[in-house]
Specification:
This protein is mostly beta strands. It is built from 3 helices and 55 strands. The strands form 17 sheets. It has a 7-stranded mixed β-sheet with strand order 14-13-16-8-10-54-53, with no helix packed on it. Strands 2-1-7-4-5 form a 5-stranded mixed β-sheet.
Length: about 650
């Protein structure tokens, strides 16, 4: 065994200590990195960007379809997308070639990014609105390649009452579309999942009060019957409901030509049957019936007398008396000729069946009516004198709750006084019109003297009638007060209502099932790929072709009837459908519809917001060479020390 002296052993230990002390600074200085210079290189190593940082940093734009790859990792590579956040702690821990001032470097290389499929979901708060297209969907999903240039259909949304749909937004991407947006495209800058939310605004509750008025001197409202004016109160200003316009009839000499408001809001012609309102209408709006004076009608009136029974005494010597070219609308009074009966006869008055005239013998003047024939003949009426001098007083009455006398117009009752009980003259029976809920069936007196049906036009009297006889109009109540509500609907995928314009549907409410009124059928226009062929109800009540323009109702119709527009799909020459529609798949579990078809109209893509994603660099892989160098030198120092020591031990004394 070789011996060593104290000096030799001391030299070896000092050598090892020196080497250890020299290496320690290299290992410790990686923990004191002050800044890192990052080289963002092209694929060939050419720097595209250089960034020096002492904190978190956002990755620069790598370009569409590209990203950054960490080239300094021995393990799995790290990929950083455009605008991802690179963590400072990881940069400092993995920086290379740190100098004495604490400045290191790091590099990334631009590489092609793999293609992603983006999942885009449209959602609607069900408390504020619903998706109407695709119908019944609670949300709509799209799975789209990030580099797709295709345009996709945006769902159609309808707000609930009190709210207005105004567009779309997203917390995940730069989406700010208004309610007119129809299609969309995606951006490669979008994250993997993007939720696009429907945006609603609360409406200001505005209600309208509409009043239809008619100048009573010029015309009357005939439907609703007996109305002086018609009002619609508290109508929601944004409703798309249609309302029925009153029916009007002009009076003598005037023609009803339409409706207008003084402020110009409304100007409709006489054919307008229904109306809708607008939010820009004033809260209180009076709509007045408009009339025009008709061209003057003239009437020729001739008084005649049977020369065998009497003569005209005033004007003296006249065989007949004529009034020519009288204004049919005049309120002037004219003289009735004076007549004297011949022996054996009694002059009792004047009569004209065509004009509805029946005057007594004491009539002195007369006025004319617009409904008289243009050539009206009024004949003197005589009775033989050799009969019993019994006279009758006849009174026709009508219960005002059930009907009205229309001829003579405006009469509450009609009387025939001092009629010779033995006359063979015929008298006009008044014309009657029943009110809603009743049917006029004839006439009757309480004592049974008279019982006529509703077709009776004239009547004669009998000597056995009572001197004073009241003849009452007889009415029957119609069936149960049933009303009909009719709704016309159109599948928005296949067509639209063009008249009334912009209507989603058209309703007629509270219609009397016994009315003979005609109502307008909405006009429909088919969308591309379809043909409008008519209307039908599911229960078979209605089946009309596309030419139907008006309709009437029947008592056997159901109280609530939906009439649907019927369309046929138009086929192209090769037998396929000519319509361009979105492909969609509906999930039965959550009513989610996924669509991926291209829209016909192309729009500009919405810009995407960057994702604020922090990429954490791994703590394994290539690192600063300084710690490795320092550690290696320390080991070498120990080995060298041991080597020296060994040599000393082996050295011979």
């Amino acid at each position: 065994m070789q011996k060593t002296n104290f000096k030799t052993r001391l030299l070896a230990l000092l050598t090892a200590a020196f080497m250890l002390v020299m290496c320690v600074p290299f290992a410790a200085f990686a923990e004191d990195v002050k800044s890192v210079t990052i080289y963002w290189n092209a694929a060939d190593g050419t720097p595209l960007y250089t960034t020096t940082t002492n904190g978190n940093i956002e990755a620069p734009d790598a370009g569409d379809g590209y990203r950054w790859k960490d080239n300094m990792k021995n393990g799995e590579p790290v990929y950083v997308n455009t605008r991802d956040i690179v963590n400072w702690a990881d940069l400092a821990a993995n920086a290379g070639s740190v100098d004495k001032d604490g400045n290191g470097f790091y590099s990334f290389t631009k590489v092609e990014a793999p293609k992603r499929d983006l999942k885009v979901t449209f959602t609607v708060d069900k408390n504020l609105g619903t998706i109407t297209d695709p119908a019944g969907a609670e949300k709509v999903d799209f799975t789209i390649a990030e580099d797709s240039q295709e345009q996709f259909n945006i769902p159609t949304v309808e707000a609930v009452d009190g709210y207005k749909f105004v567009g779309w937004t997203s917390d995940d991407a730069d989406v700010a579309w208004d309610d007119n947006a129809k299609t969309f495209g995606v951006s490669s800058n979008w994250p993997d999942k993007v939720e696009i939310k429907a945006v609603f605004e609360k409406k200001e509750s505005k209600k309208l009060n509409i009043k239809f008025t008619v100048d009573a001197a010029l015309g009357t409202i005939t439907n609703p019957a007996g109305a002086k004016e018609v009002t619609f109160n508290d109508i929601e200003a944004d409703t798309d409901q249609q309302f029925v316009v009153p029916t009007v009839e002009g009076k003598n000499g005037y023609k009803f030509v339409g409706w207008a408001s003084e402020d110009g809001t409304v100007k409709w012609d006489a054919n307008t049957k229904t109306f809708g309102v607008s939010a820009n209408w004033p809260e209180n709006l009076e709509i007045k019936a408009v009339f025009e004076k008709e061209a003057t009608k003239t009437i020729n009136v001739k008084f005649t007398v049977d020369a065998n029974k009497g003569t005209i005494t005033d004007p003296a010597g006249a065989k007949e008396v004529t009034y020519d070219n009288l204004d049919a609308n005049t309120d002037q009074q004219f003289l009735v000729p004076k007549v004297e009966a011949k022996s054996g006869y009694k002059f009792v008055g004047w009569f004209s069946k065509e004009a509805g005239i029946s005057w007594q013998a004491d009539a002195k003047t007369f006025g004319i009516s617009n409904n008289w024939p243009e050539n009206t003949v009024i004949e003197a009426v005589f009775e033989p004198e050799n009969k019993d001098e019994k006279t009758l007083n006849i009174k026709f009455t009508v219960d005002e709750d059930k009907g009205v006398i229309t001829v003579p117009a405006g009469a509450k009752f009609v009387t025939f006084e001092n009629i010779d009980a033995n006359t063979d003259q015929q008298f006009e029976v008044p014309t009657v019109e029943a009110k809603d809920g009743y049917k006029f069936v004839g006439w009757a007196s309480e004592d049974g003297t008279v019982k006529w049906d509703a077709n009776a036009k004239t009547f004669g009297v009998s000597n056995n009638w009572p001197a004073n006889l009241e003849i009452k109009a007889v009415f029957e109540a119609k069936g149960t007060e049933k009303v009909l509500n009719i709704k016309f609907t159109v599948d928005a995928k296949k067509g639209t209502i063009t008249d009334p314009a912009e209507a989603k549907f058209v309703t007629y409410e509270n219609i009397d099932p016994n009315t003979d009124q005609q109502f307008l059928v909405p006009k429909v226009e088919a969308k591309v790929g379809y043909k409008f062929v008519g209307w039908a109800s599911d229960d078979g009540t209605v089946k009309w072709d596309a030419n139907a323009s008006t309709f009437g109702v029947a008592n056997n119709w159901p109280e609530n009837l939906e009439i649907k527009a019927v369309f046929e799909e138009v086929k192209s020459n090769n037998g396929s459908s000519s319509s361009s529609s979105s492909s969609s798949a509906s999930s039965s579990s959550n009513k989610t519809t996924t669509a991926s078809s291209k829209a016909e109209q192309k729009v500009v893509k919405a810009a995407a917001a960057p994702a604020n994603t922090t990429k954490v660099l791994p703590k394994t892989g290539a690192s600063n060479v300084a710690p490795l160098l320092g550690g290696s030198l320390a080991v070498v120092a120990l080995l060298m020390g041991y080597g020296v020591y060994s040599l000393v031990l082996r050295k011979k004394d």
